[in-house]
Amino acid sequence: MLTYRVTALLLLAATAMPAFAQSQLDQELMALRTYCKADIERLCPKVEPGGGKIKECLMAQKEQMSVGCAQALQKLKK
């Protein structure tokens, strides 16, 4: 009986962890959109989203990036 409870608890924890990780990633992406919106419009206006193209564009011009955007990108890397 104890084995079943432990197994159920482990399964529950295993299914909750990806949801937490996804939630954290969503929050980091929202921060990126918030803090980098002006930089994206200014530095990468013709770059189509998808495949990390906007991130690559911003990183290529990191000297011109705002502090808030740079910090959001740094958190996304971790």
For this entry, what is the oligomeric state of its chains? single chain
Amount of helix: over 70%
Order of helices and strands: HHH
Summed over residues and divided by their number, the pLDDT gives a mean of 75
Catalogue the unreliable spans: 2-14
Span of the ends, CA to CA? 41 Å
From the spread of the alpha carbons, the general shape counts as globular
Cα gyration radius (Å)? 18 Å
Number of DSSP helical runs:
3
Structural class: mainly alpha
Strand count, sense and closure of the main sheet?
none
Strand content: under 5%
Compute the number of strand runs: 0
Total count of domains: 1
Structure notes:
- This protein is mainly alpha-helical and 78 residues long.
- The protein has one domain (2-77).
- 78% of the residues lie in helices and 0% in strands.
- It has three helices and no strands.
- It has helices spanning 2-43, 53-60, 67-77.
- The longest helix is centred in the N-terminal third of the chain and has 42 residues, at 2-43.
- The radius of gyration is 18 Å and the shape is globular.
- It starts with a helix and ends with a helix.
- Mean pLDDT is 75; it is low at 2-14.
